[in-house]
TrEMBL record:
Domain of life (superkingdom): Eukaryota
Gene Ontology cellular component list: cell surface; extracellular region
Family: Belongs to the nematode transthyretin-like family.
Chain positions covered by the region annotation Disordered: 67-94, 118-143
Location(s), subcellular: Secreted
Organism: Ancylostoma ceylanicum
Chief location: secreted
UniProt KW Signal keyword: yes
Name of the featured protein: Transthyretin-like family protein
């Protein structure tokens, strides 16, 4: 009799955990520009930063190793695409998590690469580039 009670308790716990793992998602649409020129074929990725990686991003200023603080739940890449010839992109993705997701968007571009000067002989940049502007995308035809 004790065995059946234990099995029922574990069964209800498993059902509770599965129910708590709700589906969550994020979508981003926009136009990536380098000044007034569209940044075509740039890579755009959205990632759900999980707890272990969040610690890594905080500690990144002090450590240069990517092996530190990887955590039990690695980051989830939700979507990755390239912008079209006019700089437009649309990325979206979902994941199952118990806690709210922490989405982050990464952009790889070659904007102003020929104009950027930097000092690579030490730990200090002589000239650091700006982070650019992130604005609302223009309305698309059906919105």
């Amino acid at each position: 009799m004790r065995l059946w009670q234990t099995i029922l308790v574990y069964l209800f716990l498993c059902i509770g955990v599965c129910w708590a793992m709700r589906k969550q998602g994020v979508a981003v649409r926009g136009v990536l520009k380098c000044g007034a020129v569209p940044s075509n074929y740039s890579k755009v990725r959205i990632v759900d930063i999980d707890y272990g990686r969040l610690l890594f991003h905080i500690a990144r200023l002090e450590m240069c190793s990517r092996t530190a603080l990887s955590g039990p739940d690695p980051d989830d890449t939700l979507d990755e695409k390239r912008t079209d010839e006019r700089g437009r992109f649309e990325v979206s993705g979902t994941t199952h998590e118990m806690t709210p997701i922490d989405p982050v968007m990464y952009i790889w571009h070659e904007c102003r690469d020929e104009q950027t000067n930097f000092y690579s002989g030490g730990h200090r940049n002589d000239q650091s580039g700006g982070g650019g502007k992130v604005g609302s995308p223009p309305r698309w035809g059906h919105e």
